[in-house]
Design brief:
The complex is a heterotrimer.
Chain A lengths: L7 H10 L4 H15 L10 E4 L1 H16 L12 E5 L26 H8 L3 E6 L19 E2 L2 E5 L5 H8 L5 E6 L5 H7 L2 E4 L19 E6 L2 H11 L29 E5 L9 H15 L4 E5 L7 H16 L18 H12 L2 H14 L4 H25 L2 E5 L15 H6 L5 H5 L4 E8 L5 E8 L4 H14 L10 H5 L1
Parallel strand pairs in A: 2-3, 2-6, 9-10, 9-11
Antiparallel strand pairs in A: 1-3, 4-5, 6-8, 7-8, 7-12, 11-13, 12-13
Helix pairs in contact in A: 2-3, 5-6, 7-15, 9-11, 9-12
Chain B lengths: L2 E12 L36 E2 H13 L3 E2 L2 E2 L2 E4 L9 E4 L6 E9 L5 E13 L3 E5 L4 E5 L6 E7 L6 H18 L11 E11 L9 E6 L2 H20 L8 E5 L4 E4 L2 H4 L6 E2 L6 E2 L2 H9 L5 H12 L3 H8 L2 H14 L2 H19 L10 H12 L5 H13 L4 H7 L8 H14 L1 H8 L5 H12 L6 H12 L2
Parallel strand pairs in B: 13-14
Antiparallel strand pairs in B: 1-11, 1-12, 3-7, 4-17, 5-6, 5-16, 7-8, 8-11, 9-10, 12-13, 14-15
Chain C lengths: L4 H10 L6 H18 L23 E2 L9 H5 L10 E4 L4
Classes of the chains: A alpha/beta, B alpha+beta, C mainly alpha.
């Protein structure tokens, strides 16, 4: 099997056994990127930057460590991984796919990067995304849209567009994305890969350039649930640099994958399968329940009120936090500074107006409005109250069920350019993902079939707080019984050989 | 027409923690620009704050000492505004649930007026950086060393009616916070800063006038001047038929006047909202009690103790306990020499005069408890006389002096040897027959002159008791 | 609710964004539509509901008061569009 087609764990095992050398793995992935990715040759454009020299050098170091008998307990030692470009990498350009960050090179590493380094992973490049993680299609990047490896006319979803596309196109065995309102799960669904948003606080946010601090969470994007578990094992844990990270004991997520789902109670919320849901998607997602049932899981339909209110609640909270988080980008400390300003205020205004894209500006203004004098109570405070009610709905559901099953998105990947002209429509398409962030829950998107056009469909398994291993295990069980996640997205790279 | 000035104070106090409020950088004053900084306090993208526990402890201490209710469930909020001294473009502060509320500070003014000033709230927040202006290049440099230094802001109710009350309150605050050890309260270094909200109204009126806020007040003197200036300015405006505009004014201590800051800086909508990066703080009984129990003896209790334990007059006890450094000095010196009365006399006399003359605070003086206690001991044992002791005190005030060695090296021991003194007394009587005649003819004042002549001959070291006794004895022979 | 031209100007000013007349009008319509949609939240009775800023009841996460070495200054200043050896430089602020 070709190196680039292996899962991260398969590749890691072969590196461990000496069958494949870490630098060769890095080279194979870098070659694949060169073949498939370049934007101006009509490529996928999953990467903003590849770290060729650094990656090879690092792979050699890791190989030396493995040869010296170190990194025994690291199943992903020597495995290349790609990083969404809103995660800070020391001395390496980190852009959030925005013009305003310019050539920003963080003076420090995000905690997840430190943890990946310690585990012997090899960072191969920084991934494209919607600007500042604001977007559901991957089209708002300053560095150009990312193409869906299943069909270049379609979007990848977003905002972790590069992460989903790179894994789908075998341009990376695995990746880190971030998920604020579905930014891992929705593109994973559109690109036919497995993507997980862990419980809020399970993974340190230190070094993740904030979009909406109370909702952001870093998570894995990979070929299957086992890879996700292996990555989560590395990146999770209490971090003294992040006051919102959780201090919880847990067993290895990877070791907990038993594939046993007998007695697992799965709730299916009626409200998530009504109008507006594509029929192919509906059938495929409900098929997941049937498959798991065949292995002893129990399923039940139930009512989940208020779910329709998740989108406005989410957008108010996220935009409000974003308007504050993005104020620091002002042309003074880092990144882009506009020319020809008259004074300090003009410097701020020009830099921000020229440096931010349309969607980012829209959300900044929306958030500023929601927090401004006279509107705070009616919008921001109201949204925090509804959030509390939505959280309660989930809490009540988890008294009865271990997992809630619904789609990751109402449709498969839409065509390029369809969504940008109508932001409200784009926001509404986040209906199935945002509530999970509001309630801080873990959610995983698993490939569960294809629509009539051959585009992948993702089902979402959502767990109770800290139920990360429960959803990973259910996804793992499902993937043992199915092969949707094994279907290759494209073969054009290979055919070109 | 009689006018009344109404004021409320917002006092910012830097807390004396070792590290900053949200990162581990030092809070030390000074240092090269941007040398006390890290990615967190310079607002690098992706960084997060984590609260320094000691900040919460100190804020709680201040709150308890100022008779506040402690908010057992309190939270941080973001205050958003763009300015280059604030690298995140928001200040982490507390608006909705500040750590302390409803306090009370009893004050007594110079002229003896006693009243309570109510505290509206005390909240925790981070300081901003310092902007250094380069007029030549028309540029500003940003020094972020102060960014993230912990502050508490103590917000009073509008209970002040005169500059005298304001000064009495600030003196009390400063003293209390110093006793608690939560701040060094140095106005010059900006570790204590007061903004004054001031309005005027006709005496007897219940309604408040339009207020202005005055900033950049760097000393008690500046505060008093600024208050008087602003009250007069507002009265002038109204008496001329104008209206006071709600604005922020900056005091210029060099020009002795305030002026309005540009209106653009006044138009603010801070868009406060709960800080999502910081979990709330919940203070349970155990935590609260441990802080409460750790509170040191404060000025008022100390004063009562000095009166009952050391029999100090109330006035003296009040003065000495007014400054923690003085009270500490008093207690340490008394412990060394066992003579509280004498220590108090020296503090109230020589020391207060010296501090006033030199314009320094007790905490900055060089005088050590050992030096004063040695001086007191030497006077008591009559090794030196009181005048010599005062001379030595003046030296010890400015340097760390080994008093005993100094007395020995300079041969300053008192002369009490009656034989030696008698010889000098006899010489003086022989050499000053005019004064002796005056004395004998009933002018008792002449003995003072003769006494002085004897002391002069003894180089000031004569034991005044012995000289007096022998002089009287010889004159009355 | 109706979003006026003045509201857009105010929000843009607070956000430090400069909008051309055309952009302002687009923003007015766009924000109006989105905010109008958000008004659906008014259908929910939230009387007495405590606003929830954190989904989990995590509390009292604090660090000890320990000083650690500060960061290399040159590295902290390296990204600034304009700086000298010791500080970031901005156009003179109004005093």
């Amino acid at each position: 099997m070709n190196i680039t087609e292996m899962t991260a764990l398969e590749l890691g095992a072969k590196i461990k056994s000496g069958e494949i050398k870490a630098p060769d793995a890095a080279r194979a992935v870098l070659d694949e990127i060169k073949k498939k990715d370049p934007y101006y040759s009509g490529g996928i454009n999953a990467y903003i930057i590849t770290l060729e020299n650094e990656a090879i050098k690092r792979a050699e170091e890791v190989q030396a460590m493995i040869d010296a008998g170190e990194l025994e307990d690291s199943p992903l030692a020597g495995v290349p991984i790609a990083i969404k470009d809103n995660i800070c990498t020391k001395g390496m350009k980190t852009t959030c796919a925005s013009k305003i960050l310019g050539d920003f090179k963080p003076p420090y590493n995000a905690t997840v990067i430190e943890k990946l380094n310690a585990a012997g992973a090899v960072i191969i490049g920084k991934l494209n995304m919607d600007e500042f993680a604001m977007g559901s299609t991957g089209e708002t990047s300053f560095y150009g849209e990312t193409k869906n490896p299943w069909n270049h006319e379609r979007v990848t979803g977003g905002s972790s567009s590069g992460a989903a596309a790179a894994v789908a196109a075998c341009e990376a065995p695995c990746a880190l994305g971030s998920d604020t309102g579905g930014s891992i799960r929705q593109p994973a669904s559109f690109c036919g890969v497995t993507g997980m948003k862990p419980t809020y606080g399970a993974v340190s946010r230190y070094g993740l350039i904030a979009y909406a601090s109370s909702l952001d969470q870093i998570g894995p994007v990979a070929k299957d649930a086992a890879d996700c578990a292996a990555i989560l094992d590395i990146i999770c844990g209490k971090d003294e640099m992040d006051g919102t990270s959780l201090d919880v004991e847990h067993k290895s997520y990877l070791d907990s994958l038993s594939g046993d789902v007998s007695g697992l109670k799965i709730g299916i919320p009626r409200q998530c399968f009504g109008d507006g849901l594509n029929a192919d998607v509906k059938a495929a997602v409900l098929g997941v329940a049937e498959t798991l049932k065949s292995k002893g899981a129990e399923t039940e339909e139930f009512d989940m009120p208020l779910i329709d209110y998740a989108v406005p609640t989410y957008y108010i909270i996220a935009a409000a936090e974003a308007s504050s988080n993005l104020s620091r980008f002002d042309g003074v400390k880092y990144g882009f500074r506009a020319d020809g300003f008259e004074d300090l205020t003009d410097l701020y205004m020009k830099t921000r107006s020229e440096g931010f894209g349309e969607e980012v500006k829209r959300r900044i203004m929306l958030g500023t409005f929601a927090l401004s004098t006279g509107y705070y109570d009616a919008y921001y405070k109201k949204a925090l109250q509804v959030k509390a009610l939505i959280k309660k709905v989930f809490d009540e559901a988890y008294e009865k069920y271990d997992i809630i099953l619904f789609p990751a998105a109402p449709t498969t990947a839409p065509k390029m350019g369809e969504s940008l002209s109508d932001p409200l429509k784009m926001y509404l398409s986040d209906i199935y993902t945002v509530s999970v962030n509001l309630a801080g829950l873990p959610g995983i998107s698993v490939p569960c079939g294809f629509d009539k056009d051959g585009m992948p469909i993702g089902a979402q398994l959502v767990g109770a707080p800290l139920g990360d291993s429960v959803i990973l295990n259910a996804a793992f069980a499902y993937q043992q019984l199915t092969d949707h996640h094994k279907k290759p997205a494209e073969k054009f790279g290979k055919e070109a050989e | 027409m009689a006018w009344e000035t109404v004021m409320g104070l917002e006092v910012h106090v830097e807390l004396a923690t070792k590290s900053k409020i949200f990162c581990s950088c030092t809070t030390e004053f000074g240092g090269e620009p941007n040398s006390h900084c890290c990615p967190v306090c310079t607002g690098m993208p992706g960084t997060l704050p984590v609260v320094n526990r000691q900040v919460v402890n100190y804020a709680m201490k201040a709150g308890i000492a100022l008779n506040c209710d402690i908010t057992r469930y309190n939270k941080f909020d973001r205050k958003n505004y763009f300015y280059p001294d604030l690298p995140k473009a928001y200040q982490i502060s507390q608006l909705y649930l500040p750590i302390c509320r409803n306090g009370r500070v009893p004050i007594e003014t110079e002229s003896g007026l006693k009243k309570d000033i109510r505290i509206h709230e005390i909240h925790m927040e981070e300081d901003a950086g310092k902007l250094i202006h380069d007029e030549f290049n028309d540029e500003t440099k940003c020094d972020y060393n102060r960014c993230g230094v912990p502050l508490i802001e103590i917000v009073s109710e509008p209970d002040f009616r005169s500059a005298e009350e304001v000064i009495a309150y600030l003196t009390k605050l400063k003293s209390t916070l110093e006793y608690l050890g939560v701040s060094d309260c140095k106005m010059q270094e900006g570790s204590m800063r007061a903004d004054v909200n001031l309005s005027v109204r006709q005496a007897g009126s219940e309604e408040f006038g339009t207020r202005t806020e005055m900033k950049n007040l760097n000393s008690f003197k500046a505060i008093a001047k600024a208050i008087n200036f602003e009250a007069k300015r507002q009265i002038d405006v109204i008496e001329r038929g104008g209206k006071v505009i709600q604005e922020t004014r900056r005091w210029d201590d060099n020009k002795d006047k305030s002026y309005a800051m540009r209106s653009k800086e006044n138009a603010q909508d801070y868009r406060y909202f709960p800080e999502p990066d910081l979990p709330p703080i919940e203070i349970d009984d155990q935590w609260y009690n441990s802080v409460k129990d750790s509170l040191p003896e404060l000025a008022e209790a100390k004063k009562q103790r000095y009166i009952s334990e050391f029999s100090l007059p109330e006035y003296d006890a009040n003065m000495i306990t007014g400054q923690k450094a003085l009270a500490d000095f008093f207690e340490e010196t008394t412990a060394l020499c066992g003579n509280p009365k004498e220590v108090s006399n020296w503090i109230m006399g020589e020391l207060m005069r010296k501090l006033g003359d030199e314009g320094i605070e007790a905490k900055d003086m060089k005088l050590t408890p050992k030096a004063l206690s040695t001086l007191i001991g030497l006077v008591e044992k009559k090794t030196i006389n009181r005048n010599k002791a005062k001379e030595i005190f003046a030296i010890a005030f400015n340097e760390d002096l080994d008093v005993e060695k100094y007395v020995k090296d300079n041969n300053l021991e008192q002369v009490s040897d009656e034989g030696l003194v008698l010889e000098i007394v006899k010489n003086v009587i022989a050499a000053n027959s005019k004064a002796v005649d005056d004395y004998n003819s009933g002018n008792k004042k002449a003995i003072g002159f003769l006494m002085g002549q004897c002391m002069k001959e003894l180089k000031g070291k004569g034991d005044p008791g012995v000289v007096n006794k022998l002089l009287n004895q010889e004159l009355n022979k | 609710m109706e979003i006026t031209k003045e509201m857009v100007a105010y929000v843009a000013e607070l956000s430090r964004l400069k909008l051309s007349d055309e952009e302002a009008e687009t923003a007015r319509k766009g924000l109006g539509e989105i905010i109008g949609y958000m008004d659906v939240l008014n259908n929910i009775d939230t009387e007495g509901v405590e606003p929830m800023s954190h989904a989990f009841a995590v509390k009292n996460v604090m660090r000890d008061d320990v000083v650690r070495p500060s960061h290399d200054r040159a590295e902290l200043l390296a990204n600034a569009p304009k700086a000298d050896d010791e500080a970031i430089i901005v156009p003179r602020t109004v005093e």
